[in-house]
Batch of 2 targets.
Target 1
Amino acid sequence: DPELPRFRISEVRKHGADSETPWVIHEDKVYDITDWVPAHPGGQVILRAAGGSIDPYWNIFTIHKNQYVYDILAQYLIGYVDQADLVDGRPAQNEIEDPFDDDPQRDPSLITKTAKPRNAETPGEALSSQFLTPNELFYVRNHMWVPKIDESAADKFVLTVELVDGTTKQYTLHDLKSKFPSHAVTAVLQCSGNRRKHMTQGSGRSTNGLQWTAGAISNATWEGVLLSDVLADAGFEVSQALTGESEAKHVHFAGLEAYAASIPIKKAIDPQGDVLLAYSMNGKPLPRDHGYPLRSIVPGHVAARSVKWLNQITLSDEESTSQWQRRDYKCFGPNETKVDWDAAPAIQELPVQSAITEVKMGGWTKAVGDTARGQVIEPAQNVTLAGYAFSGGGHSIIRVDVSADGGKSWSQAYLLPDCDGKDGSPSPCQGNGAWSWKRWRYEAAIPLTAFREAEKTGGSEQVGAGEVDNEQAATHSDKKCTTVMVKATDDTYNTQPESHAATWNLRGNLATAWHRIQVCADC
Ligand code: MTE
Ligand code: MO
């Protein structure tokens, strides 16, 4: 409609999130979204774009790039961006806000997978050298930008808790810290996509998602208040729920940038479940990337349920309707390439997992046998391996098996006594379950024959072509190599599957097959 007015971008900016009449720009058009905000399915988050272009947000929430959404928006058209502010018919690039402008600085040794949003894995050395991952090296998985809460604004931060009957109660951070006993839990967070790249390579089939190697997992001590204490204070009958008589079946967590997920009520109120509303990580305030000022910590469950920048908890008879609960973080059969999302349950407790995170090649061990009696023991290559093992649901790791000859023979790795406490001191591992990983070490003198055999068979026959997880493998095929592999077993005697092919799923979730690394020697 050429009759409609033209607005300078400076005019649009006056209609930001705090204005009574928020406006947005889409392409070169201006919309007054005042009446849309209350009806927007994603809620208030749309205001993040108010006063500027909505397009960079729709590049993140691609679900909006849809005629249905364009039709809704069309109802609110009030004019066009002034020609003076357009370049090639669109607002000039420098006029468009970058949603990630406020993201925090990150440690350069994190291995970045995507910058916007920020996704980065913990480097291998940091995975095994310390029991508690330092905050700045803890892996980062963000679906969107990092909400900005200044320390001054943290006083004004409120968490809203809503019961099934709709009654709500609000808590400031100060309320949480002063009204409830603090509680510490040492727990791993592991992304459902950890080792997805191994599944892709091992199965030879593509998977849809960030191609993480073994670093989308970390361990920290979290401090906060128990979710069940807060629910009880908000009026929820925890004792009733314990006997299964409550209407509330799920606890929804929503973050400030619109991410949301839920957990079953059973976990939320389990007196041994240790579900936290955490404000501290390894003795420091939560870093912005990890949810400042408040996040849920759901030990033993997939990290997708540990919602960062948490500002809303809702009890409900059904699961969260968010895409992260209903349309992701599920697994299907290796044959299922068109899936019925509703047919599979959301991932909650994690299966058993382990990985090799460090390989150190030592020198050659020369013949140490009794040569006098003609018993010559082959020279061997010294190899030291380090890694982690973890299982969900609070199950402890009872054993880590390592093979240094492609799976023909196995022996047990040494499990570090990280949770034992030294010299009678209390365990540094807080909480009621085995929520932390077990670090392990393994030293082997791999006989030269193993490497020779590997050379003969190309190093892959015994383990199946393409099953080797490390990237260097292919380039080493002309060298003398052997495959080392690891698998862990938890206290229910569940163990990891042998092949990625067997558990392949189109999203590449829960890649837990034996981790294989090809080690090559300069023989
Ligand atoms: N919470 C919010 N608000 N936004 C997110 O993008 N990502 C989830 C979860 N909680 C996410 C979130 C996923 S998929 C993972 S794996 C963990 O946070 C990652 O937590 P971390 O970045 O602290 O390691
Ligand atoms: Mo994740």
Target 2
Amino acid sequence: MEPSASRRAQGDNLSYFIEDPGTGTLYRRGQLLGKGSFGQCYKFTDTSTGKVYAVKIVPQSRISRLESRGKVEREIELHSHLNHRHVVGFHRHFADRGNIYMILEYCSRKSLAHILKARKTLTEPEVRYYLRQIVAGLCYLHQQGIIHRDLKLSNFFLTKNMQVKIGDLGLATRDEQASQRRGVVCGTPNYLAPEVIAKKGHSFQSDIWALGCIMYTALTGCSPFEITHKQEMYQCIREGRYPAPNHLSPGARKLIGRLLAPRPSERPSLEEVLEHEFFTQGFTPDKLPSRACHSVPVFAL
Ligand code: ADP
């Protein structure tokens, strides 16, 4: 890329055409999709194939500190080796003088956080639909030895046909690295498990705890552990004490209770989650219509 284009590619003066110097692929930059902790995410079109991507752009100036550069490099190292239908696809990455670019699978229906904001609560069949896909993606990550560490509704992206994709591996780690770094809380995960608060490190079971928080939030519209006073919230987390969601089915309440077990060893495995009565005794739709993004879907049983 000529120097002037590279200069324009910094900050808000991003160029409209960006070239991957490795392959010569020319991308046209489209709308801003959102802002992240290190940079921005834009819609990009590959000008030769017409294929659309979501591209995370991290300005080199934002990661001049070795520590932040390491975080971005780790995210790329982990994410670029993954390939699963329920994990956001990582197409390629490249850098120019101004930025680092991560070319990702485009998820046009944003995230489950956006859906919950519009809907306030989701129905149990929908939660089964989403959770089945999330559990499949998470099972793959765990089999690869990766702990996500920041599972939350805004990191579950949705494609045009309402397929869930787990994204944002910015806080993810390999299991062996997590155990070497016990007690080190890096970044701020949304749903802190009791063992993370106790600085015993984030394990595969801490991701299972987050699933409990996610399921509770999706069904009730509120997080099980709301922040009023931090110390009080930590105490509730340690004891697994949260407002009883009495209006939910017994199966949903029981599964939430198991996922939010204070002791990690008492939480179910991902296989056990799918075998729970919440899944086996209730209807799960095969597909969701896109109107489920803003209104309660009606299922023809
Ligand atoms: P952070 O890593 O700080 O959470 P990201 O850079 O992952 O932030 O994402 C910032 C925003 O960009 C998200 O909130 C979302 O709106 C959008 N975004 C990220 N990835 C995708 C994607 N694959 N498809 C569509 N939009 C995305």
